[in-house]
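To: structure subgroup
Subject: Chain for Friday's discussion

All,

I'm putting the inputs and outputs inline so they're searchable in the archive.
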Amino acid sequence: MAGGLFEPGDDVGRTWDEAEAVLVACDDIEGVMATIRNAESPVAARRALKLEHGFTGRQAALLLTLPVLSFTRSERDRMAEGRRSRMALLADVTGRIPVVRDADPEPPA
């Protein structure tokens, strides 16, 4: 397909497959992330995603490229430090600055 909704050269089937992967991963994000974290290698992670969660090979490969799903151990340790650390890490990885509100805002005077 040339032009239209997809960039020239994009395959509609690939795009649909990738969108489905993200939607399915969101249904069990904790399980998907645990599978990736516990894998010995990217190849083992792809295999586990296919066997344990039913993803296709292409979908599993896509999930491994998403920044939030491929945090390293040091990044995960940093996230465990607290909410602001998690927000800072998310901003570092995604290039977006999330809004962090105080848990108990003071009422207006």
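Points worth raising on Friday:
The chain has six helices and no strands.
The two ends are 59 Å apart (CA to CA).

D.
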